UniProtKB/TrEMBL annotation:
This is Cof subfamily of IIB subfamily of haloacid dehalogenase superfamily/HAD-superfamily hydrolase, subfamily IIB. Pfam families: Hydrolase_3. NCBIfam families: Cof-subfamily (TIGR00099), HAD-SF-IIB (TIGR01484). Coiled coil: none annotated. Transmembrane segments: none annotated. It comes from the Bacteria.
Length: 267
């Protein structure tokens, strides 16, 4: 039976207005009542994901910042990883540019070095304020221990930035396009898939006992784990090709799981 649903947030369970639809909220409750556990997996920070958990009215496992942190619903930290001071500084100084916005994410806060006219628009999508740190590079290893560096630019430029970063830092970082126009740069071997395996080991679950749903490239590592993978219809077309199902909502996934489990229990 499927015992765990792993759901992405933005573009999947969470709308651009930071809301969960009533239908998806009921679907999550129905799954929990049927005995299916839930894990939220996102590029967002843990404290932002806690806000979503409040909307969903429950306790959930959390894979935050694309896998930099794994926290159980009992609030036990299973895994955490940040950049080394040297790599954080090198990557940051390479990607920062007047033409782009570069966010540095610690465990609970997003930082930016200087104001940008687009920051107000970006802030609308976040649950907590972006803080200004004029001495960003100098604070690495001192007051800042980043687990993610995000570059925000025009969508057609993001893939070029990703290619350049991987050419220079292929042994030190992994990159994921987490949303159109947003590139997340992570410490090497950090992904939703890597951290999901850590959670599965903790929960003693097999790969075919989970289902995963998401919409973007940073969800692919977790799709590769399970035969029950679901891409959102409004997500990236290339991502949809790599999953076993394409759906319109998390509600659709929940219905699949409940039907699948019902058939298995009859057998």
């Amino acid at each position: 039976m499927i015992k765990l649903l792993v759901s992405d947030l933005d573009g999947t369970l969470l709308s651009a207005e930071k809301k969960v639809t009533p239908a998806d909220l009921k679907a999550i409750k129905d799954l929990k009542e049927s005995g299916v556990d839930i894990c939220l997996a996102s590029g967002r920070m843990d404290n932002e994901m806690a806000k979503v958990a409040l909307m969903l009215q429950g306790d959930f496992h959390q894979i935050s910042q694309n896998g930099a942190y794994v926290i159980t619903r009992e609030r036990e930290t299973l895994y955490e990883k940040v950049f080394s001071e040297e790599i954080a500084r090198s990557v940051y100084n390479t990607v920062k540019s007047p033409e782009t916005i570069t966010l540095v994410c610690s465990n609970h806060t997003n930082f930016v070095e200087q104001d940008h006219e687009a920051l107000a628009e970006i802030q609308k999508y976040l649950f907590f304020p972006i803080e200004k740190e004029p001495n960003m590079s100098g604070e690495f290893g001192q007051s800042l221990f980043p687990s993610k560096i995000s570059v925000i630019s025009f969508p057609d430029e993001i893939f070029a930035i990703e290619k350049a970063i991987l050419e220079q830092f292929s042994n030190e970082v992994d990159c994921y396009v987490s949303a159109p126009g947003c590139l997340d740069i992570m410490p090497k071997n950090i992904s939703k898939g890597h951290s999901l395996r850590i959670l599965l080991s903790h929960l003693n679950l097999k790969e075919d006992e989970i289902a995963c749903v998401g919409d973007s490239f940073n969800d692919i590592p977790m799709f590769n784990i399970t035969p029950h993978s679901f891409a959102m219809k409004g997500g990236e077309p290339e991502v949809q090709k790599l999953t076993t199902h394409v759906v319109s909502s998390v509600k659709d996934v929940a219905e699949y799981i409940l039907d699948y489990n019902a058939k298995i229990s009859v057998k």
